[in-house]
Hints:
Chain A is an alpha/beta fold and 750 residues long. Chain A has 27 helices and 20 strands. In chain A, 40% of the residues lie in helices and 12% in strands.
Amino acid sequence: xxxCMKDQASRRFKILAGRDVNxxxxxxxxxxxxxxxxxxxxxxxxxxxxxxxxxxxxxxRLRQDFDILDFFIxxxxxDLSVAEQAMSVxxxxxxxxxxxxxxxxxxxxxxxxxxxxxxxxxxxxYLNVLxxxxxxxxxxxxxxxxxxxxxxxxxEHPALLAADAAExxxxxxxxxxxxxRVARSAPLNALAVLVGSQTGRGGVLTQCxxxxxxxxxxxxKGLISYAETLSVYGTERSFVDGDxxxxxxxxxxxxYASRGVKIRFTSGxxxxxxxxxxxxxxxxxxxxxxLLVTHGAGSQGVQNGSISCIALPESLPGGVRAVLAExxxxxxxxxxxxxxxxxxxSHSYIRKTAKLMLQFIPGTDFIFSGYSAVPRRxxxxxxxxxxxxxxxxxxxxxxxxxxxxxxxxxDENGVLAVRxxxxxxxxxxxxxxxxxxxxxxxVEAAVYAHSSDDMPERDSVTDLAAADRxxxxxQTVLDVVKVLEAAGYHKIAxxxxxxxxxxxxxxxxxxxxxxxPGFHVNSAINNPNDYAGPGSGDRVVGSRWDEIQAIPQARxxxxxxxxxxxxSCSNLTEAGEFQPGSGQEIVVAVGPAFxxxxxxxxxxxxxxxxxxxxLTGIARQGLIGxxxxxxxxSDLGQLSHIAAQLSGSGIAIGLxxxxxxxxxxxxxxPLSNLELFPQSPSLNLEIYEAIGRNAACYALGQPxxxxxxxxxxxxxxxxxxxxxxxxxxxxxxxxxKPPQTLRFNWEPDI
Amino acid sequence: xxxSPRYPLGKHEGKHxxxxxxxxxxxxxxxxxxxxQISPEDLQIHAATLLAQAEIAQxxxxxxxxxxxxxxxxxxxxxxxxxxxxxxALRPGxxxxxxxxxxxxxxxxxxxxxxxxxxxxxxxxxxxxxxxxHSD
Lengths: 750, 136
């Protein structure tokens, strides 16, 4: 007989299919297309041969077959004084050094700088993500982690840019990156975040991500203090498509340094595959080539961790692991690392937060190479992996784990104040430099705005014309400083001149350099990472731990139970020692704080109303209820046990001040009961009356349907702290004192 | 811990450091700016300062960063517009072998920048081999 069972769809699978994580794209590896993260069959095996002090073979490619990256790596990147020795150390041994607290980071860095790209990825083969995180905690070049923000908005509104930059600075970001929607806006956008950031606090470094030579022009005018988007690529074809070579990039790095401006390169897994020129190699192998080029060019650092391409490695197995590996390799080469987490990596918050932990927990020089300090929809980088609406989650994560994630909790008034000052300052700058006016309405809007939706329109035509004149003209940041000083913004003017004055010392050109609010430089030179196991390196203690703990949401514990306290219940009076009863009665026993130190249950029901409801229920069945206050215990089972002993019927109701209730019978063990109501937040007056009725029914031997109470799975999460504090309040009053009669000045309304 | 006793330069030697225009960095302040004594040229780092940073980088074990600073020190002598043009010339497909030779000579003789000149010559050789010079 043919079965008539139809193929039915699983309800659960239907729900799963609609989950955020299933909106992400997942593919099987395809090495020929460059779609593998590690261990492509086309990755070369490591090798290095020198002849007369020159590299003649690199990763099984002969010099005559070198491409531009091979030439550059061979002639500039490898430390030839140690390379042959380094290449002879087994990769597994080097991997073990990364997690060995007795091997100093300098030693590992020296070896890494003698390793070819294929050797570097071979080291990674031996490491799982936990080991890589330990390695990263050790190899990070700067001792203290920091963080970078994206500040942009769709309208490119200067007052909003300035306000958001000021807030980002206040929140602790050491760098602020902006960019353009319209290329011509570059100088004005750079100016707004410069002025805004220095309003939030002095010392924040700012950049404007634009085309390479425009970036250099902005730097020369003093409108940016660093540049980051000096991109490098892992194959010759992709590099050339990117319109550069390792030599041109190295020259550009030197050009910026010659103007006293800090730079870092940008690489990241996946770009070559995206550009169609991966040559069958794995993403991590190509990234290792990028990192060696970066190191050889003399860049102090790199932005990597896939960056804009993140969803590409994450579509493949081991993708998140490979992205962690590239951060680790960079730090092994002595590079400052701004470790991604910027571009939107997943539809699933679970997934993107899990990935973040791989950099957050060990700490990197910049945990985000662009945390969107504005709402995602205003992020012009196509980013916003985490954004302004996640700030409180982030500060809580720092507090949860005692980790320095580079940010600090802030209070609303402090933020509003810096936003206002920044918006007013940029208004003054625009006025003083003859740019189109920023109105008072725009300033006000910027103070309270969340996004550019909250901002009035500006005339972009006149703004862009002003931008063109500013860029092509002779005005520089010095003119901005003069305007600010003349308009009375002395602190901001001082900060602006100082951030530019620091370019003349060159101190912040060193690896991983940032400034503290007093413009003291903090870099791998004077603050090198000295992690060597537990109790060493950067520890979150002292004033920094105090700061991280002090989220504004953290309340004084006793404030939480204030709504359960008030004047003692006037209708309840103690009237001597409670006597055992006889006959059909129900004893209602309450805890030591009832009606006095606590006067309401956990969800705000007045104690007198609760008692009245219970007694009404008892009275409806024709029985009497006697109220007893127990002092010798605060435990519900224990106090109801005592009550059942003294009850004429042997049936008693126990009631803690927070509202938890029980129906007890003489003869049952204290932890046993007839009915238990443990979820005090779910109890209402109707239920308390039903409890009274049921107790009476038990006493009368009548059939009882147990009171139904809704189960709330969130109750414990919401109220366990309040529960603990209420119980503590009650338990504090426990004393050696016999149970007391509680006279209730009230009559049931029956 | 500090990997180089001279660092930060601003703290240890700040009183003596001058800009490329020989202006004392310590004198770059608001009063002097407001009284018209400071111009944009005074915000240019001096080659000697970059050489000092190169030494610091070497002391701390960052050799290729030091090389970058050596090149940068030479490039302080190159005016802004020329600098931008030099960068452009090194991008793929922009220059012929002769263009890059001329650039190297300009760096060496015109700006006393031998390291940068050698760097450009090496680039030219590699670009030739890899076919990324400008083809006429």
